[in-house]
Design brief:
Strand order of the largest sheet of chain A: 1-2-3-5-4
CATH class of the largest domain in chain B: Alpha Beta
CATH superfamily of the largest domain in chain B: Thiamin diphosphate (ThDP)-binding fold, Pyr/PP domains
Bound molecules: thiamine diphosphate
CATH architecture of the largest domain in chain B: 3-Layer(aba) Sandwich
Radius of gyration of chain B: 20 Å
Number of strands of chain B: 12
Oligomer: heterodimer
Distance between the termini of chain A: 50 Å
CATH class of chain A: Alpha Beta
Number of helices of chain A: 11
CATH topology of chain A: Rossmann fold
Largest sheet of chain B: 7 strands, mixed
Shape of chain A: globular
Structural class of chain B: alpha/beta
């Protein structure tokens, strides 16, 4: 990984972190009804976005996201203001027009299909886009992301099964970001496997379990995984152990967890780059503060934007024939 | 004349050739079987899915998101219930993304009783389906309508639920589908796959078999949301759909011949959207109406229709309007006695019709 890339990843991680911290704050005021997001998953989710082939149609990757992929979207090029618009449920929210929770993206131009709140159903839908991609040819893949607890749903097995049928394997990159919790239930209370990749391996696909708090490990594992799926047109299951630094969502407070309870991947990456003399601690602090200020400024702009109109509920029920 | 399975098959063939259908799939939908009711024999885009209804609906959504045009089959309507949250997602995808993604997909499945199918081959699904916004819902009662509604369903850029009555799958039509050969034996020779005593014989018999599709098939379509007046009458309007169109027609003959009661019979054909104007015009004319179906009676789709009839035609009604639906029981029993006690029969329709038409305001 060269210096430029290392710094680029750091910059995106900072932007995404400051965006999410602003969103979590918004949920404590009248600015937002709800927050949930990916604070603590940036080391993994940023490379996930950087390595993607972003565009529209079957030649590009399709994304069936979990609701913690904000930093992936930032890495793909999302303007954080758009995320604040959704969090503040403005009519200008480009993903849902003020209809859906934050982190519930839909962007056809990037093959980001609508994020749904129904845990794990994306695993039943993902084989459909992958099937179309395989038939089409080319190297586009389907990326589907999810947490650990949701793997207990039947849909998890639907996705694994449909992707591993003999001679009809599908180009799906399965991404489990394992933060060891559902909402409050710990992994060990509801699973019998050491990790979830073991289940995927039983379906006959290649798997890997990594430390998702490590940028370099994540980047390297993701490069290989994307590459494998692109070239082999077969599924790959990558499980990344990650942190959950603001708890499950605003329903559980959305507060920063006590220091030392779980590693902070942004701080770890910062310290590493300081140690390698790529940045100074002061550079970092300056950037972090500037992004924090920028998010507040963006929010101030967003607050001026219109709320949806009552009549908007009748828009987009049926596409016209 | 073609039966309903053949009509669906021909419409799907037309869809593959001319309307961009990319995938026709589901359990046993592809070769060698071509569907447990033969509706997908000989088609070129069929494939067999895992025995997994959630996967089938999920894959259809994914295919539609990827710009394909899938027709997914759930083998029996009785097994669609475990897909309801995926059906809800399909129905709200266009809305949730504020118009970002629409889903051009058809889900076809067979519904209703009448084949002595016991608990799990007799369910209705239309009332449940009507609680899933974002879907259009159609139910044919004749092969010609089955063809025309399938063409419209395929052309529609939204999710369309195509519910066809199990009981009528093998019933022959009374009208030719445009392009259908006049001689039905000829049609069978052309498009019915060879049969065999066991699966092994079927596989052998169908090895290398190709249908020869009628050349003149057209895009004959029945607009979604347009009802049909099956017979005109002046004393009573019966509003129904699917299998009960056939039963109501028999009842209407008895009522006419034996009792001199003239029934206007409406086949809704689409439940969402439904043809309010045709229904209201008829009820305003006759002043009396019976809404008929075989689904369970609590929160029955017929109640929705009745509610709107009352709202729109209240002062033109001269008798209490009614719904005749299935019995309020958990399922349909196997014995013919049990099934007939659960699902409105011709005699029940006659009975109800007499009660409405003899009621004095
Ligand atoms: C089908 C369904 N059941 C329950 C919920 C409520 N719920 C929301 S998030 C969540 C926990 C999910 O945990 P996990 O899959 O590990 O993902 P994480 O939130 O940890 O990223 C639950 C139970 C839901 N949204 N959908």
């Amino acid at each position: 990984m060269d210096k430029k890339l290392k710094l680029k990843i750091l910059d995106i991680m900072i932007t995404a972190r400051c965006m999410e911290e602003r969103m979590a704050k918004m949920s404590k005021s009248a600015d937002a009804f709800f927050w949930l997001g990916g604070v603590g998953e940036e080391a993994f989710n940023v490379p996930l976005g950087l390595l993607a082939k972003v565009g529209h149609g079957l030649d590009y990757d399709f994304f069936h996201f979990h609701y913690r992929n904000g930093s992936t979207m930032v890495a793909m090029g999302m303007d954080p203001m758009d995320q604040l618009r959704q969090t503040h449920n403005r009519a200008t929210d480009p993903f849902s027009g003020g209809r859906n929770f934050c982190n519930h993206y839909a962007r056809k131009a990037w093959n980001v299909v609508p994020v749904t709140s129904t845990i794990q159903t994306q695993m039943s839908v993902a084989p459909g886009t992958a099937y179309a991609q395989k038939r089409h040819g080319g190297d586009g893949v389907t990326v589907v992301t999810f947490g650990d607890a949701g793997t207990a749903e039947g849909d998890f097995h639907v996705g694994l099964n449909w992707s591993t049928i003999k001679d009809r394997e599908l180009p799906v990159l399965f991404i489990c970001t394992n933060n060891a919790y559902g909402i409050s239930t710990h992994y060990d209370e509801v699973h019998g496997q050491d990790n979830l990749a073991q289940i995927a391996a039983g379906y006959g696909m290649k798997t890997k379990v990594i430390d998702g708090n490590d940028v370099e490990v994540s980047y390297e594992a993701l490069s290989k995984a994307y590459d494998y799926v692109r070239k082999e047109r077969k599924p790959f299951f990558l499980e990344a152990m990650v942190s959950r630094l603001h708890g499950h969502s605003s329903s559980s407070g959305g507060n920063r967890i006590p220091d030392g309870k779980e590693p902070d991947c942004l701080h770890a990456w910062r310290d590493k780059l300081v140690e390698q003399d790529l940045i100074t601690r002061e550079d970092y602090d300056r950037k972090y503060q500037a992004e924090t200020r920028r998010m507040l400024q963006l929010l101030e702009e967003v607050r001026k934007e219109p709320a949806p109109e009552p009549g908007d509920i009748y828009n987009y029920i049926f596409a016209s024939v | 004349m073609a039966n309903m399975a053949q009509a669906i098959r021909m419409a799907l063939h037309y869809g593959e050739e001319h309307l961009g259908v990319t995938d026709i799939f589901g359990e046993d939908v592809g070769p060698p079987l071509g569907g447990v009711f033969t509706a997908t024999q000989g088609l070129k885009t069929t494939w067999n899915s895992p025995l997994d209804e959630r996967g089938i609906i999920g894959a259809a959504i994914g295919l539609a998101l990827a710009g394909q045009k899938p027709v997914a089959e759930i083998q029996f309507g009785d097994y669609i219930f475990n897909t309801i949250d995926l059906l809800k997602l399909a129905g709200n995808t266009y809305w949730s993304g504020n118009g970002e993604y629409n889903l051009p997909m058809v889900v076809m499945t067979n519904v209703g009783a009448g084949i002595h199918g016991s608990l799990y081959h007799s369910h209705s699904f239309e009332s449940m389906a009507s609680h899933i916004p974002g879907w259009k819902i159609v139910l044919p009662s004749t092969p010609k309508d089955a063809y025309g509604l399938m063409i419209s369903a395929i052309k529609d850029p939204n999710p369309v639920m195509y519910l066809y009555p199990k009981m009528l799958i093998r019933a022959k039509g009374e009208e030719l589908i445009p392009g259908e050969p006049e001689d039905e034996r000829e049609l069978r020779r052309m498009i019915d796959a060879p049969i065999g005593a066991t699966l092994y014989d079927v596989i052998e018999a169908r090895d290398g078999w190709q249908p020869s599709w009628p050349e003149g098939l057209t895009d004959y379509s029945i607009p979604i949301g347009k009802a049909k007046i099956v017979r005109e009458g002046k004393d009573l309007t019966i509003v129904t759909y699917a299998r009960h169109v056939i039963l109501a027609r028999e009842a209407a003959k008895i009522l006419e011949n034996d009792l001199g009661i003239s029934v206007e019979l409406i086949d809704l054909r689409s439940l969402y959207p439904w043809d309010r104007e045709t229904v209201f015009a008829s009820v305003r004319k006759t002043g009396r109406c019976l809404v008929l179906n075989e689904d369970t009676p609590v929160t029955n789709y017929g109640e929705h229709i009745l509610h709107h009839i009352i709202d729109n035609c209240f002062y033109e009604l001269v008798a209490k309007p009614r719904v005749l639906a299935g019995a309020d029981v958990p399922a349909i029993g196997l014995s013919a006695v049990l099934e007939e006690a659960s699902v409105p029969q011709i005699a029940d329709i006659v009975h109800e019709a007499v009660a409405i038409t003899t009621e004095e305001p």
